[in-house]
Every structure is written in structure tokens, then in C-alpha cells.
Amino acid sequence: METSKDRILQYIDYQDISIRKFCEKNLLSHSILTKKGAIGSDKLETILKNNPQLNAEWLITGKGKMLSDILKDYPVTTGMSERELEKKMQGEIEVWEKKYYGLLEKYNKCLELNSYKNFQSFELNNPETKSYKTQKKEK
Questions:
Q1: Cα dihedral angle (74, 75, 79, 85), rounded to 10 degrees?
Q2: Comparing 100 with 62, which gets the higher pLDDT?
Q3: pLDDT tens digits, residue range 78-94?
Q4: Which one in 14, 83, 93, 115 has a CA-CA gap of 20 to 30 Å to 138?
């Protein structure tokens, strides 16, 4: 008879990830899936919360489809495995981070230049903040 543990292993295989990666993602001990014994309902609840596409009825009873229809309209249905999608997204995140930090650096340089120019203008036009050299020349 197939157990919830067997179905989790099927799901892991479907996701094309390792048991260790699945356990890390779901904050579970690796031994839960590798040693004998049933999985507690609290662990099943955690798995279902972290994997909303997983059909709870299938996981618990084996009836129905592995994946629920909850995410049928979700754009992640690209045919990629979770690992492939994760790699692609990480690459895109890195590209956008580089763009962001490049723009942030330019913005900070502009602020520095404007602050310096504004300070010089303020210092020259305000009699109370004239530099020591300027005051000395006027005397």
C-alpha cells in the first residue's frame, strides 16, 4: 500500500529536486523521508502550506491528481522544473541587482555633486558662512 511518504517522494521526483532540497525548503529533517515510519500530520500540514500546488487529498489518501487546480492560471506553468525555474529567476535577479546598484551609484554621485555645488553657492552668498580666507581678504 502506498503511503503519504511514497507520494511525497513521487512529488519530489516530479519537481526534479533532491530530497535534501525539498526538506530544506519545507524546514523538515531529511530523516523524515529516508527512515521508516509515518509522517506526522503537522509535517504534512507544513508540506501542504509550502507547496500550494500539491493536492492535499492526493497526498493523504492517494485519490485524485497530484497537483491541485489552485495554480492552473498561475504563469509559472512553463514546463520547467522548479530547479530550472529557480536558476532562471536567480539569473534575472542578478541582472536587475547589477542595474539597481549601478543606478544607485550614479544617483549617489549626483547627490554628492549637487550637495557640493549647493554648499559652495551657499557659502559664497551667505555672509555668516564666509570662509576664513574670504573674511581675511575683506579686512
A1: -110
A2: 62
A3: 566 767 777 777 778 88
A4: 115
Cα–Cα dist 21/111, whole Å: 44
Dihedral pair phi/psi, residue 37, rounded to 5°? 120, 160
Which residue has 502550506 as its cell numbers? Answer: 49
- Cell numbers 551657499 correspond to 122
* Candidate CATH numbers 3.40.50, 1.10.260, 1.10.10, 1.20.1510; the one for domain 4-71: 1.10.260
Residue with cell 555672509: 127
pTM above 0.90, yes or no: no
For CA atoms 124, 128, 129, 134, give the dihedral sign: positive
